[in-house]
């Protein structure tokens, strides 16, 4: 992935989740910004890797539309999504990191016509992340935790971050009650984290044969404290995690 090759698509939902990535690109290569469908796509390179960086905004439709444009208008070679999520797995805490092995839409239900969670007419409910890309992302997370985990825990008042791998579930709801997160755990006991974009990106990437990977830092535990925890994590911490992870992911 060097200049001249197909670029890597990097996206997040919200600006805080990108950290200083666009500034880093501006400093290194300059940035060309192209607008499609009310979104700005920033084209340039970071650490010698040609990239297209953009914000999807929130929800599955927004995410699917944005990743489609990355594929059609920019011919990205692969897609990486970075952002925050609610922790659902028993041992997944605020400040931990989850790298998806698979993603599914927890709010998709065309039963009894199709099994619950299955994407109608596609016949799939779980979309795999690209194993090699997910391995590289998890390795970058592990290096970030080894280098900065202790300092980050002290600075942000979390435990030393743990890196989890497994199922991330997505839906068009901000999950924010003990009852809602309990229902999610019961329906999908393997789910480690809940968010609002990842499975939509994974579906579109599957349909186009583009490798994708998703990394999520846990901002809340999808319970009654989630709105407060989410906002403070997003404003104070999310950017530091993204910077620490993406810098190591992009380094050759
Ligand atoms: N405009 C709001 C929207 C945030 S929605 C704001 O900026 O404050 C929450 C975002 O964080 C989504 O992009 C979603 O992917 C992720 N997220 C974090 N915690 C979540 C939770 N408990 N449930 C669902 N999504 C969550």
Topology:
Layout: E1 8-12, H1 21-29, E2 32-36, E3 39-46, E4 49-55, H2 60-74, E5 78-87, E6 97-105, E7 127-128, H3 131-156, E8 163-170, H4 178-187, E9 191-195, H5 198-208, E10 212-220, H6 226-236, H7 238-250
Parallel strand pairs: 1-4, 1-5, 5-10, 6-8, 8-9
Antiparallel strand pairs: 2-3, 3-4, 5-9, 6-7, 6-10
The site of S-adenosyl-L-homocysteine has 19 residues, from strand 5, strand 9, strand 10 and helix 6.
Give a verbal description of the structure:
With 252 residues, the protein is an alpha/beta fold. It has a single domain, classed as Rossmann fold. 38% of the residues lie in helices and 27% in strands. A hairpin with a 2-residue loop joins strand 3 (39-46) and strand 4 (49-55). The longest helix is centred in the middle third of the chain and has 26 residues, at 131-156. The protein is globular. Bound molecules: S-adenosyl-L-homocysteine. S-adenosyl-L-homocysteine (SAH) binds next to strand 5, strand 9, strand 10 and helix 6.
The total count of strands amounts to 10
In sequence order, what are the helices and strands, one letter per element? EHEEEHEEEHEHEHEHH
Named once each, the bound ligands are: S-adenosyl-L-homocysteine
Instruction: Give the total of domains.
Output: 1
Strand order of the largest sheet: 5-9-8-6-10
Topology-level CATH name: Rossmann fold
Largest sheet: 5 strands, mixed, barrel
What does the radius of gyration come to?
A: 17 Å
Span of the ends, CA to CA: 10 Å
Low confidence ranges: none
CATH architecture tag: 3-Layer(aba) Sandwich
**Which structural class should the secondary elements be placed in?**
alpha/beta
- Strand portion, in percent? 25-35%
